[in-house]
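User: Can you predict the 3D structure for this chain?
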Amino acid sequence: QLQASGGGLVQPGGSLRLSCAASGFSFDRYAIGWFRQAPGKGREGVSCISSVGGRIFYANSVKGRFTVSRDDAKDTVSLQMNSLKPEDAAVYYCAATRRLYSELETEYNSWGQGTQVTVSS
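Assistant: Here is the predicted structure, written as structure tokens:
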């Protein structure tokens, strides 16, 4: 299972670091994705990182501001979010896929419970 944490309230321009902790499976064999869902909107892909090789995807809306990384020794993936904007406010989810790499939400079959990010002054 996956557990996302690190959300909270931050002012525009601020930073948060989300963490996704995994347990119960061979974490290093799974690509991990971050997705978000704002009120009244569909879920969108934010970033993903491959299981091997360090291939990374960022949505255009977060490129240059968000950084994803993984620590297989600790079975965690982090999402460093800088220069946050009000439009980044959403529930953020991490998810795992047995594929080496995937940008497709439909290919992720294990989901964490989500952590709320609020960006407001």
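The chain has a mean pLDDT of 95. The longest strand covers residues 90-97.
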